[in-house]
Amino acid sequence: MCKVLVFAGTTEGRKISEFLEKQKIQTHVCVATEYGETLLPKSSYLSISHERLDETAMKEAMQNMHPSLVIDSTHPYAAEVTKNIRKACEETKTEYVRLLRAGSTEDTKNDSSVYVDSVDEAVEYLSTTTGNVLVTTGSKEIHKYTKIENYKERIFARVLSLSNVAEHCKSLGFEGRNLICMQGPFSTEMNRAMLKEYDIAYMVTKESGLAGGYPQKCQAALEAGVKMVVIGRPEEEEGMNFEEMSKFLQKELELDNHWKVTLVGIGAGARDQVTLEAKRCCQEAELLIGAGRMIEAVAEVGQTIYEAYRPDEIISYIKENPEYENVTIVLSGDTGFYSGAKKILELTKDDPQIETKVVPGVSSIIYFASKLGVTWEDAALVSLHGRKENLMAVIKENKKVFALVSNAEEIRQILTKMTEYGMGEVTVRIGTELSYKNEEIQTGTARSLLHYKGENLAVLYIENESGGESPVIPAIPDDTFVRGDVPMTKEEVRSISIAKLKIKKDAVVYDVGAGTGSISVEAAMVATQGNVYAIEQKVEAQELIRENARRMHVDNLHVIEGMAPEALEELPAPDCVFIGGSKGKLYEILDAIRKKNPFVRVVLNAISLETMMQVLKYTEENEIEEAEVIQVAVSRAKKVGSYHMMNGQNPIYVISFTSRPAKKEADPENEDDFVLEEINLDEVEPEDMTGDIVEDITKVISVGDLTPEKIREEMEESE
User: Fold this and answer.
1) Is 365-463 a domain of CATH 3.40.50.300?
2) Strands of 628-632's sheet, edge to edge?
3) Residue 330: pLDDT band by 50, 70, 90 thresholds?
4) pLDDT by residue (tens digit) across 42-51?
5) What pLDDT does residue 372 have?
6) pLDDT level of residue 668 (50, 70, 90 thresholds)
């Protein structure tokens, strides 16, 4: 007894049988030959018989097995067999479904092919021609080709590698070099090789669809200059393709879904750069997913593909198509270097239905390094493809930099900025179409390549001989900055202020009232992976900030023209804020930045006691913790005659704190709003347990009937 009875005669029939076996559905498969049986897996869920059944035998099989469903996946040319299966199902009242063989996805009818309705017509046409003929229509009607004059020399028969088939062909005169016993389907390369080896002028084939290797035959014939003689398919019939059938069975049999998903890095892009393991995974995939360019590099002719690159879209498609259990997702470069693999793995890590495997590839950066003959172990590797990086700082800090770049316009912007930042003579090499036949490598300086025109995707190699020779100094000397008449935070105070900001590499930093931008520049040199926003209303100061940013090679510094807090509205939430000047709007600025980030780190410089007291009052009113005030008094030696005198500079108050969210006011009606705090009454004198202290206690304690009067009574009794 079985649940599903499959009449198999096509690749689709084998695939649907394997699909049912994986789902642990009791299935019996009827195949016509012993060879067909060998193609199916051995399993306790799969039983197989190989014999040709007539209508009566089919009816008996259904009566004995009592299947709830019959799947007819016989060959499209076996019309009589399909007729018998249908009739047997009608008489046994068994549900019948037709599984169709997939046709070609392309319009294969062209001027280089001859289309006929039967083998007889093909023989008739070939009798009027000269040249060798490769027959790929099987052995069933091979005898008809004996009508062709000189057929023993002209006809090359490609048939199954079965002894009875070979003997039958030999008995007709097809033997030796003219008898090719092999099992298909065949790749384009294999077909092309045979056509050239046997000097074929005509290839006879049936329109056998994707599974039968028809597209591969067409492509090989086109490349070899061989005319196709195509025996057309029978009229289109009703039924479901493999994908539709799989979904039907999922619903009909209430099957569970499970997918094996392989993430494959295909390297720079050309087929020759794809690893053998990656090729194997792509070839074995039931479904190939990736961006168009990636798919093109690895897809076989006729392979099922889905073009997509967004991880969420890819995962959704996989789950919407349970018929594809073995899925390969192709990704450019290496799966561990700025790859979409990261997001896909995040989306699938907790999904019990998806099993993932990662196959690495050769990154275009590594390929480029090998072409240039340089090592990459000591180089900085960055990607600007859909991302922002402080590239100027990276170039300044490293002798060798490799960068992935999206397009020519982005390359020109980088070269322009390098030139503006004093690195116009630095050597730059641009690699485009890497690994492809039209691969191109251009070499020059940043200045000489300013008007670069090339392909979109590229890899840059920047060789800065002076890179890394100017380390980040805790306090850059004052005379390094262009100052003009704009106030500037002096280097000693600046050093302390930067330290108090506690800036991380990826921080977002505000410099409010930036002046010359000395704080902004140093903050940008610390936050190499973040962004610094210098807020300044004076035009002269804005230009000074930009000039100082260029001098120090920082391109993650952004000048915001305007006055805080209004100028802060469109900016991303800050991690750290330095306030050098507030124009009388200190409280408004503090409120604005704390609204953006309740946990923001703030540092202020003040020269007056009034400003310092303002800040302290604000921190007290807003219950801000960790407020710290230090006074910095710097004296510099000045030579007076033969002596050195110390000249004191104005003392500066450096105030720093980390904001905290404001505490919620307790609701008297809500017991959950009251917090019990530990109070050591042994440390409190009885005479002090009056007035404000009692009131403070009752603000945080609510236990039964405890009241201020009762507290006093308890204290008096204890006295």
Assistant:
1) no
2) 557-561, 531-536, 508-512, 576-579, 601-606, 652-658, 628-632
3) very high
4) 888 888 988 8
5) 95
6) low
Beta strands, E only, 17-95: 27-31, 46-50, 69-73
- pTM value surpassing 0.90: no
Per DSSP (E only), the strands in 23-119 are: 27-31, 46-50, 69-73, 96-98, 113-116
Categorize the per-residue pLDDT at 107 as very low, low, confident or very high, splitting at 50, 70 and 90.
Answer: very low
Tokens at 411, concatenated: 């390359």
DSSP 403-467: EEE--HHHHHHHHHHHHHTT-TTSEEEEEESTTSTT-EEEEEETTTTTT----SSEEEEEE-TTT
pLDDT tens-place string over residues 483-502: 777 767 778 888 899 999 99
Helix, strand, coil % in the chain, rounded to nearest 5: 35, 20, 40
Cα–Cα distance between 73 and 240 in angstroms, integer?
10
The answer regarding whether domain 478-658 maps to CATH 3.40.50.150 reads yes
SS3 616: helix
Q: How far apart are CA 521 and CA 684, in angstroms?
A: 52
pLDDT at residue 680, as a whole number:
52
Reading the block at residue 109, the tokens are 């009818």
Confidence (pLDDT) at 51: 81
Q: pLDDT per residue over 288-306, tens digit each?
A: 999 888 888 888 877 889 9
Class of domain 113-231: alpha beta
In this predicted structure, what is the pLDDT of residue 694? Answer: 44
pLDDT attached to residue 234: 59
CA distance 289 to 317: 10
- Compute the radius of gyration of the chain from its Cα atoms: 40
Task: Say if residue 565 is preceded by a cis peptide, omega within 30 of 0.
Answer: yes
Name residues whose C-beta falls within 8 Å of residue 584's C-beta, 6 or more positions apart in sequence.
none
CB 102 within 8 Å of CB 241: yes
Residue 295, classed as helix, strand or coil, is helix
For residue 29, the one-letter residue type is: V
Q: How far apart, in Å, do the first and last CA atoms of the chain sit?
A: 93
CA distance 269 to 212: 29
Mode of pairing for the β-strands spanning 531-536 and 4-8:
unpaired
Spell out the domain ranges in the chain: 4-98, 113-231, 257-362, 365-463, 478-658, 671-718
Q: How far, in Å, CA of 578 to CA of 602, rounded?
A: 6
Virtual CA dihedral for 558, 559, 560, 562, nearest 10 degrees? 170
402-426: average pLDDT: 91
Fold of 4-98: Rossmann fold (3.40.50)
| pLDDT-wise least confident of 468-477, 492-501, 581-590 | 468-477
User: Looking at residue 549, what DSSP letter applies?
Assistant: H
Q: Which helix (H) or strand (E) holds 710?
A: helix 708-718
Domains 365-463 and 478-658 share a fold: no
Fold of 257-362: Cobalt-precorrin-4 Transmethylase; domain 1 (3.40.1010)
